[in-house]
Amino acid sequence: MECIINRRAQFSATHRYWLPELSETENLEKFGPFSKFPGQGHNYVLFISMSGELDEYGMVLNLSDVKHTIKNEATGQLDFSYLNDVWPEFKQTLPTTENIAKVIWERLTPHLPIVKVQLLEHPQMWAEYQGEGKKASLTIRSHFSAAHRLAPNLSAEKYGKCTRTHGHNYHLEVTVEGEMDSRTGMIVDVRALKKVVEDHVLELFDHSCINEDIPYFAESQIVPTTENISRYISDLLQSPIQKLGVKLSQVKLFESDQLWVEYKGNGSETFFNVATDFSAAHRLAHPDLSLEKNKQIYGKCARINGHGHNYHLEVTVKGEIDPVTGMGVDLGGLNQIIKNSVIEPMDHGFLNKDVSFFAQVVPTAENIAFYISNTLRSPIQQLGAELYKIKLVESPNNSCEIYAADLDQTSVNAAVKQLELAAV
Ligand SMILES: [Zn+2]
Ligand SMILES: [Zn+2]
């Protein structure tokens, strides 16, 4: 069974968008304030995603090895540097966020099973690279505040307070993909992209009542759920973004930190997300191995009385938007399933002792994620939707993801077997 692990790293560096073959005026015209001497600095945040099968110890890779490789091969060299000069790759192609992500991929890929590099220049703008030549994606995050009510289609009996007019601070993430220019390192002019989002979405939605003020919703029976708003925003952005020479690949709309929707422009298909937290203790040690051996494998995590985390869980469900309710999945039903299957049995518990599955299986983040996805899959199916992915964040530096399509019926047995093998 495949599992994706994500490791965070950070570095601070400066860069300048300046091509020596152009005049000062031409540079200023092309890059605006980014061409200014001596450049600008950022606190970059890097997420390296790696994929693999779980080993006999319940891990994809030893995280301490991963941490050192990322530092030696990438962040240690970039930290406190002037990016334009630090690596020869940036002489050829400017160190834009998307190009830095690409070069980090190229330098790390001989050492780690990378599937994605995500690089945040700041919390409102980041690039992702997945090893596809010059193709990369860029995401910008923006905000609007708006009122809505999930009526008249929905009954107050079932949907309660949401049928009253209320409001949210919506967060919007717009992702575009395209080919990097081999000299400027850009897939798109970020300033032009921001302007498109401002003109076509923020201007319309910010400080509005969506049901009354936006004709698309006012003149129809379309309920302004997060699903329907995302879909409409995607429709609004499609053509102006195409005119910038890139493709809109995703709209992600957050109603709150606990609820958001991803829409990829595919008919009525949406990816609905809820997030929740639980606090639990665990100990990483296989019962059949000596303390010394366990400490060798799991480090401090093998200490005999255990330790704990605030786990953050994100559940992604794939569904079709219902034309009447405007929802991809019954939110109340989904929350109830997560509460019954995950929160109740795990929150404020000692996983090794309180969850019978972990009596035999070491509760690494990977195995916990695997257990949760396996537990949620069939109740969500009974709700008429499909579990797509779960993400479990154990600490700001470490998280893992399981795609439900990678699970199979025999997975639970396989995980137990791995440990039996390890003990031989
Ligand atoms: Zn609402
Ligand atoms: Zn731990």
Automatic annotation (TrEMBL):
Swiss-Prot/TrEMBL keywords: Lyase, Metal-binding, Zinc
Keyword field contains Zinc: yes
Enzymatic reactions: 7,8-dihydroneopterin 3'-triphosphate + H2O = 6-carboxy-5,6,7,8-tetrahydropterin + triphosphate + acetaldehyde + 2 H(+)
Signal peptide: none
Enzyme class: lyase
Record pathway: Purine metabolism; 7-cyano-7-deazaguanine biosynthesis
EC number of this enzyme: 4.1.2.50
Gene Ontology molecular function, alphabetical: 6-carboxytetrahydropterin synthase activity; metal ion binding
Cofactor(s) required, per the database record: Zn(2+)
Stated family: Belongs to the PTPS family. QueD subfamily.
Protein name per Swiss-Prot or TrEMBL: 6-carboxy-5,6,7,8-tetrahydropterin synthase
Organism annotation: Sphaerospermopsis reniformis
